[in-house]
Amino acid sequence: MDYLDNLNPRQREAALHTEGPLLILAGAGSGKTSTMTCRIAYLIREKGVSPYNILAVTFTNKAAGEMRDRVAALIGGGVNMWILTFHSACLRVLRKHAELLGYSRDFAVYDPADQKAAMKSIVKELNLDDKRYTPAYFLSIISDCKEKNMSPEEYRAAHGEDLKTKIIYNAYAAYEALLKKNNAMDFDDLLLNAVKVFQKDEAALLEYQNRFRYIMVDEYQDTNFIQYTFVKMLAQRHNNICVVGDDDQCIYQWRGADIRNILEFEKDFKNTKVVKLEQNYRSTANILAAAHSVIEKNKGRKEKKLWTSKEAGNKIVYYRAEDERDEARYVAQEIDRLKTRERRYSEFAILYRTNAQSRTFEEALSRRDIPYRVLGGLRYYDRKEVKDIISYMRLVQNPADDLALTRIINEPKRGVGAKTIEKLQALARVRGESLFQTLTDEEVTGSLSAKASAGIEQMVRVIQEYNQEQENLRVSDIYDGVLVRTGYLKALEDQNTLEAEGRIENLMEFKSVIYDYEKDDPQLSLPDFMERIALMAEVDNHDENENAVVLMTMHSAKGLEFPFVFLPGMEDGLFPGWRTFDREDGLEEERRLCYVGMTRAKERLCLTSAQMRTLYGKTDFTRESQFLRDLDKHLIDGDAIYEKKKDARAASSMDGYSREKPFDPFQQLKYVKQQVKKTAAEPFKEGDQVVHPKFGRGTVVRADDKIIHVAFLDGSLKKLAAGLAPLSRYIKGKE
Fold it and tell me: pLDDT for 358-412, tens place per residue?
């Protein structure tokens, strides 16, 4: 039993407890994988349990593979046991028993691309507007339903008989019928149908209950309702179930994880033994104490506190920057200072709350020639939506840019397929003109389908108008107009998915890029802006194996560790995020995310915030994060954290601060659309006093439906396009 010698007393206690339900509360960096693999080895080597009778499930193929390798090393040979992901385990059950549900055993498994294609055909079959009702929109709702074991009929019963519910019901029912007809299941079906097999056939359930006398579940805090049901049904006969997890690291509730599964495990399984793994092997004592001072404020958690035999280490550093650019400058400067000959850049990580935050850090690191790589996402300027909008603006500057036009001609979907684009390009080559010029010919667009013709004509009209007026518009006005009037923004809004929301946030953040340049140069022209963006966007991407600073979201960082960690954006509305205020338990999940971020640090942890931040194209003074106020101030070096005295009103609010919802990036969307709509609708007549954001105050000297002639105070006379020029009426005192 020498393999148990490296375990600490609590780990050893968990490994040796084999009979009855066991809950292992494994804190961050507490060696849970070693404990689990030693427990499996003990069952096989010392208790004489056949590997055939053991089931171990986890969430990723990587985690399952690592566990298999470690168990094989401990027992000295191959492992003939199920150490699988939930999906793989359910697939094995279904390959044997799918006929119980009306499928043949050789059923197909549809991946996301297959699902999208299937739903696309259904949208067409139901004659729905594919801009409003996208495949992604329906598939997101259907996935959520399947995670809750909710059929199309149950969905309709729960949501009433309004038109939207009927449309979703019809799409869901048609999708299920198509899968059944094609003898196919999607990933959600694998989990759901395995449970249905057990519910439908007692003999099938008994077969697996008898086989799996010992069950182990990793990352139990991340299980959803169906996964919980699957495991509970299997464990009912022998009751030898061991779950490992940490409620303090449950950060995927938005993806279906149900924290109640781990918090109420002892209610589900009577006489549960609870073992807490609280010794941390990753971080210094000060980092652990600081993380605990934050997470202990959560009410819905199991009581535990990580500790370490390591030294106290450095205190947590806090820096209150002037703005987001100063914040990024400070972080890049600190990396430069701490990077010694013995240290690698890959030992440094910048973990942020939203992908949109990465831009300023990418720019600051580039200025110092510090190599970096973005994990769990693309570099800011490499993201599809950012490349798309840059292509639109390149076209406004230069309509002859065929490369930019080819990229966005069908973004958003305008019914222009690859073959159509090839024919249009061939025609342009024969005529010796640019692709855009060819598209201005009504005979050419008239030969296309009605949808393609209307979509292209609208796009061409918008590009032409802004191209002709670019000298009279701010770059931000062009950006707002293109985003709204091309339909690009609406297409993303109509998807109604988390992915689409993330893309919209990145587009709103691009407004901040423009805002920064306009702040430095109020007369910034579109060509100047595009030149600067091209230089910034051309920074080389770095290979994943390269020695480079890591940038990633805190959600993506779970399970990783770094000697040096920076957590920027510690402000209410950013972290905790603005969505937090929509749910009562939102703040607790955000606090768990903060805890996960802090416990990624091994040696040094630095927190930063900005007094003023331009985010999503809007500049606001900020309030320091609730999580900074949660911190034990004795553990902090650097700037002071502002503490507001609590009055009676504050004491009644959530954790002592106002329930007023902080700035929401989607409010900026409304502002952008309102401005574009207002500009298009505003009528002016001779003598009106007006204000232009680029040229200042002036007087309308002549106006008709197309052109507004304005004499400005600097003596210039401008001809501005009606419905496009960002003019507003002059109000004394509000210049």
Answer: 989 999 999 999 999 988 766 778 888 988 999 999 899 888 888 789 999 999 9
Please give the backbone phi and psi of residue 370, each rounded to the nearest 5 degrees, phi first. Answer: -90, 120
Q: Please give the structure tokens belonging to residue 464.
A: 């032409």
- From the list 33, 272, 611, 667, the catalytic residue is 33
In angstroms, the Cα distances linking 549 to 336, 374, 543 are 11, 9, 11
Exposed, middle or buried: residue 735 (CB in 10 Å: 0-12, 13-18, 19+)? Answer: exposed
**Active site annotation includes 600:** yes
406 in catalytic set: no
Query: Any catalytic annotation for residue 47?
Result: no
Token pair 């793989």 is found at 88
Distance CA 579, CA 582 (A): 6
Given 130, 188, 189, 218, the catalytic residue: 218
CA pair distance 432, 420, nearest whole angstrom: 18
- Full-model pTM: 0.74
Cβ(311)–Cβ(284) under 8 Å?
yes
Q: Residue 105: name the closest of 192, 197, 176, 173 by CA.
A: 197
- For 304-330, the pLDDT digits (tens) are 999 999 999 999 999 999 999 999 999
| Catalytic-role residue among 12, 600, 604, 613 | 600
- What is Dmax (Cα atoms) for the chain? 96
Is 218 noted as a catalytic residue in this protein? yes
Asked if residue 299 lies in contact with residue 46, where contact means CB atoms within 8 angstroms, the answer is: no
Quick check: is 99 catalytic?
Answer: no
